[in-house]
Amino acid sequence: MKAAQEEAVHVFSVNGCDLAFDSATGSLHSLDPVGKAVLQYACRAGIDRRIRQDPAFEKRFLEEVKGALFPRFTREEVEAAWEEALPLIGKTLWGDDFTLQAAAEENSDGPEIGSLKALCLNVAHDCNLACEYCFAARGHFGGKPQLMPPSVAMSAMDFLVSQSGKRRYLDVDFFGGEPLMAFDTVKEAVGYARRLEKTTGKIFRFTLTTNCVLLDAEVDEFLNAEGISVILSIDGRPEVHDRMRKRSGGSPSHATVLRNALRLVQSRQGRDYYVRGTFTRHNLDFYEDVKYLYAQGFRRMSLEPVTGGRGEDWAITEQDLPALREAYSRLAAFWKETFEKGDPFSFYHFEIGLDGGVCKEKRITGCGAGYEYLAVTPDGSIYPCHQLVGKPEFNMGNVSDGIVTPALMRRFYEARVPYKPRCIKCWARYLCGGGCHAGALLSTGDIKEPDPLACLIMKTRLEFALYVQYIKGI
User: Fold this and answer.
1) Which helix or strand (DSSP H or E) is residue 376 part of?
2) Which of 79, 203, 371, 395 has its CA 20 to 30 A from that of 402?
3) Helices 55-69 & 33-45, crossing angle to 10 degrees?
């Protein structure tokens, strides 16, 4: 069997359930013992292409399967399971003849400059915390502390509108550092965008990512009045949070963060927020942090593995994968417990959208960094994403002058799943969209070569996300 088809159907077991995921169609199937054995045997043997090229081969192969699985299963049981399994074997989104060259020819025009849908506005290259694992050099992005002037934020809004083409809905995330250190700029930018809505027909949707320290009644009122979604950075239990997320002077931040976050969440009746935490090697039992946050009253959460930090004692390594699998298992079991009690929580990375369906382009694109989504610094410089800010080789222009490196934009466009040899061999390709470009650069130096450790973690997590979908009945 060709490598690109090795995991067209992924057979796996989670918390006592045997499941099969068809990567091409996004369909999830529960397996009985004979179905699991037949599907595993067929996938290992690589018979998908040969069945379609030689119909007589199917009959010969079925006899082989019956013999191989006897006496565990009767010939009749195997034949019935085979009839159910056959439609799953060997599908791809593009068909048998899909190749990287075909993808390149299909998309020869490259990204359309003028079809931008989202900006990350780094309104503050400064922070009031000194998080040990911060990818942004504790908020400064390797430079001097700087806040975005309102004039730059408004120019960014103009740039987004001018480059959005026919898109109606435009997304803006206020980011940093700590964006509430530039709260006046945030307010000016939102007000300007609301005026643009009236003259352009565009609709702006805003998100603000905050460490919660500067949240107060005035900020809460503004965020609620403008319908701004919030991402609240909390790592979980006090000892976990305060180990990595100290104030700039070294004092703990958890008590203030928790108090402010709870007040804001309660003021908006639990809508339009996510608690977003980071777990490290110090808390591979992060399911306990989810339980802690749940007990505090949060119902929308995301805890993600720390990235980078090679050589640091908090960095996650391949040796930690068994512990991570156990943690996701316990987390999925806890989710099931709350689901059965009628008070479930949403864990962001368990919400993979199998029920709603996802278009082909979305399935192969991921975040769209570099051509659909861009980051803007306080001085108006444009970068492919927030994690690449400050790296001169990724400077794409300025909001006043526009994109000056269309070749760089195309480079990111061509980092979608069809262009990544390792991705088109992977069962998870249409769920992860090819992984994080910044993570790939940090690990392999090539945005077309995903970080191997990140891939292993992602596939582990996705198995449990699929299990959650199964429990939901999707």
Assistant:
1) strand 373-376
2) 203
3) 130
H and E: helices and strands count for the chain = 17, 16
Closest-CA residue to 197 (of 223, 169, 173): 169
* Residue spans of the chain under pLDDT 70: 1-8, 46-55, 88-114, 354-363, 474
* CA quadruple 238, 242, 243, 244: dihedral sign: positive
Residues forming beta bridges with residue 10, ordered by sequence position: 21
Task: Give the pTM.
Answer: 0.90
User: 127-145: per-residue pLDDT in tens?
Assistant: 999 999 998 877 778 889 9
Dihedral sign from CA coordinates of 102, 106, 109, 114? negative
Are 174 and 121 contacting, i.e. CB atoms less than 8 angstroms apart?
yes
462 burial class (0-12, 13-18, 19+ CB within 10 angstroms)?
Answer: buried
The CA-to-CA distance between both ends of the chain, in Å, stands at 31
Q: Is 142 left (phi over 0), alpha (psi -120 to 50) or beta?
A: left
Element (H, E) at 265: helix 254-267
User: Can you tell me the distance from the alpha carbon of 326 to that of 458, in angstroms, rounded to the nearest whole number?
Assistant: 14
Check: CB of residue 384 under 8 Å from CB of residue 124: no
Do 267 and 224 touch, CB atoms closer than 8 A?
Answer: yes
